[in-house]
Amino acid sequence: MFENGNHKTYFFKLGDSVMSLGAFSLSLTVKNLETSMAFYELLGFTKFAGEQDQNWVIMKSNDTLIGLFEGMFDKNMLTFNPGWDQSAGNLDEYSDIRAIQQTLKKAGVELLSEVDGNTQGPASFMLQDPDGNPILIDQHR
């Protein structure tokens, strides 16, 4: 992790390449969004972003982010947002999702889904760690 004042971002080192993965959150699949929100509020989290009528919210406590998703994913997953800090503020410097994808593919990492390398702006792709835990790289810029 790299910390610069109030901005925190996470980096992934692969060989000699270092990629900025941006903000980190744990995305949880939940059975009942309202019940889960109430539980995490007891732990000191507050609603930070999201659309309850679309069955998802992001809860925040200090720099810790937890996404709650009802009926959207099969498994809990790690989520990184290139270009954002932990408060969804834009980072001045970051690794574009297409560069991250290209570096991972060159290293032989199998991707579950891919971004069209000829596009720009928001996009996402997925991979999994050696234990089968899904990882979502989700760029909103």
Can you offer a commentary on this structure?
It is a single chain. The protein is mainly beta and 141 residues long. The protein has 2 helices and 10 strands. It has helices spanning 33-42, 97-106; strands spanning 2-4, 7-14, 17-30, 46-51, 56-61, 64-70, 77-81, 111-113, 123-128, 134-139. Strands 1, 2, 3, 4, 5, 6, 7, 8, 9 and 10 form a 10-stranded mixed beta sheet that branches. A hairpin with a 5-residue loop joins β9 and β10 (134-139). The longest helix is centred in the N-terminal third of the chain and has 10 residues, at 33-42. The chain is globular, with a radius of gyration of 15 Å. The model is unreliable at 1-7 (pLDDT under 50).
Task: State the main characteristics.
141 residues; mainly beta; 10-stranded mixed sheet; 2 helices; disordered N terminus
